[in-house]
């Protein structure tokens, strides 16, 4: 296991403990779904969309949706979202 994986596992274990959740509630499949979804939100919308999307997915799951159903709906919404475009300041700073 890599140091990065160990760090992530340690952090997730700590968060589960303070939120009184069983560590197995976030299995490998759920991790991959959420990481892929937040990556896509960050790249296709804007970066702050990633954590907020994860939060909204959590709300939906907490209200009874399955993770796979909620993530499929968000992926559908993302497929129609335009990719993030740099604003004028970013363009000037990069020289484009």
General description of the model:
This protein is mainly alpha-helical and 96 residues long. It has one domain (27-94). It has 5 helices and no strands. The longest helix is centred in the middle third of the chain and has 17 residues, at 28-44. It comes from Naumannella cuiyingiana. InterPro entries: DUF6457 (IPR045598).
SSE layout and pairings?
Elements: H1 3-18, H2 28-44, H3 49-62, H4 67-79, H5 88-94
> Could you tell me the strand content as a percent range?
under 5%
Number of helices: 5
How many structural domains in the coordinates? 1
Structural category is: mainly alpha
InterPro entries: DUF6457
Pfam family, one: DUF6457
Protein name: DUF6457 domain-containing protein
Question: Which key phrases capture this entry?
Answer:
single chain; 96 residues; mainly alpha; 5 helices; globular
Offer a concise description of the structure.
This protein is mostly helical. Helices cover 70% and strands 0% of the residues.
